[in-house]
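explain this.
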Amino acid sequence: MAQFIRPIADVDAGSWNDADEGDNDGEHWDELVANDDSKTESDAVGNNTNSTDLDVEGTNSGIDDPVSSSDHIIRVVWNSDQSRNITGHAELWQGVPDVGSLIAEATVQLVDTTEITTTYTLTGGEADNITDYNDLHFALWGRGTGGGPSRTLQVDLLELEIPDAPSGFNETVTDDADVTDDTSRIHAAARTPTDDVGVTDSATPQHLTTVHEGGLSNPTTGFPTVDTDHVVRFRARSVTDGDLRISIYEGASLIEEWDQTLTVTFTDYNRTLAQANVANIVNYTDLRFKVQGVSADAAVPHLSWFEFEMPDGVGADPDDLLPSHGALLGA
């Protein structure tokens, strides 16, 4: 199975039009979502001249990180409006084109009015540069190649195909099960750490894809006033050796992120956050975690437990700070 990211809105239409080959509603994205002969069309260009760009936003919700850098395919169905050459360019951007980062490009020389399908498979490095699958955009443009009068680029379909995300880690998180109140901790798995936590060595092992957002619930005392001794601890393994990426956010702001190489054996890991990064935390109740495999080898990491330890608030007894019910581990 696969997921598809397709245009959902125009961002900048340049001088493109949908009057002759499309539905003439002034919107261009809707001509690009299906291979149905309803097309949008660039402005006409001559030899060695570029058309304007058509920038469109891709699907912006419900796309899961595939936790894999393989099988990311840009697909375009397009043609020239004349028997004159025009080179089509379909760019994939992280964020708005010319503002965000260019990820990859599909390009081909079109020679006549016959529609062709062009595909481009992203390299592993290009796919790894995607940081948010729900914030991808496309840019379309053409360049006249060869002499003769003007010609236009006509586009019928534009999409990015990516793999499905692996099945979620099937652990139910409770708010208070077996958590010892011995220090200030934000617990990702509110339970006594064990090696197996729903993990089975079956042909289809349980595995973690992403960690869902969740804030702290029921803080009982104050938060720390020092930048030291903020420690992330977790226990994990992978089906084969590979890297696990751990990200700590306050809301949408990244506090610290790093990659941890996992082995096939459950191992305890810890990392003390840099004081300069801790100093950027304003609201401890808005901390978020993201944990996911970032290499093909670590596509099926197993997470036994995860916590964020910090000093007690001034003059306070130890806190037991838990995420909202079921918030941090995918179920």
